[in-house]
Amino acid sequence: MNSLFTALITKRIVATVSALLIIVIGCAAGIWQLGRAESKIALAANLLARQQMPILSANDRAWTLTEASERRMTARGRYLPEAAIWLDNRPRPLPEGGSGNAAQAGFYLLMPLRLEGGDEILWVNRGWAPRNQENRETLPPIQTPVGPVNVEGIVFAHPGKVYELGSSKSAPPLNGPRIEQNLDLESEAKLRGWAQSPFILRLEESGIPDGLLREWAPLTTGVDRHYAYAFQWFALAFAGFVFWLASGLRQYKRPDLKSGDQG
Q: What are phi and psi of 111, to 5 degrees?
């Protein structure tokens, strides 16, 4: 037993430490990927549960983010297309099992809706449109209703954030739509000088052909990928252990090593 311990560990300190690092890193990364998967499943379950609650109306009163987050909401008002913000570098939304190119880049169209019966603004994520490949400054052609509209969707704190290099110190132009990387609700409210809801409303697919896609992917999208990554990390840890053990046993069985131990 002592000679086996010597062959596997004592005479192979560097190999043992290296194998131990591989096993620890592989197991830790695998557990982390499993945690990511479980978090997505829990978030999706929570979202589904909140969607089953009574539908809120943005016109009834001013709702807080805590009250309205991930709830279904309806709103009636008029769009303000001249203040629209096109969020760049957004992937195409695809339903679960849907077809299409998920890597295709485009825009989310965020447009303020002035609620009927008051002056409060509700920012609405109307959907996704592809980016012009020849000139990225050319905005996609979409249709916007002129009169009052009734919309329905799900409330979120923001439309999602992407990495942004630096920030513009100069005030953006307010005379028309503009392209941005992210939407800062507080900054936009100060810039415009209007009262607005502390959240955005992501529209659901209504079947209205306005040039925008709203087939949002469920929050559980990517869970299978996390499981696959976890398997790969655990396999790496197991392979590291097997290689360490096999090389150690092969060295232990070498006649010169065994005769040296006996002397």
A: -130, 130
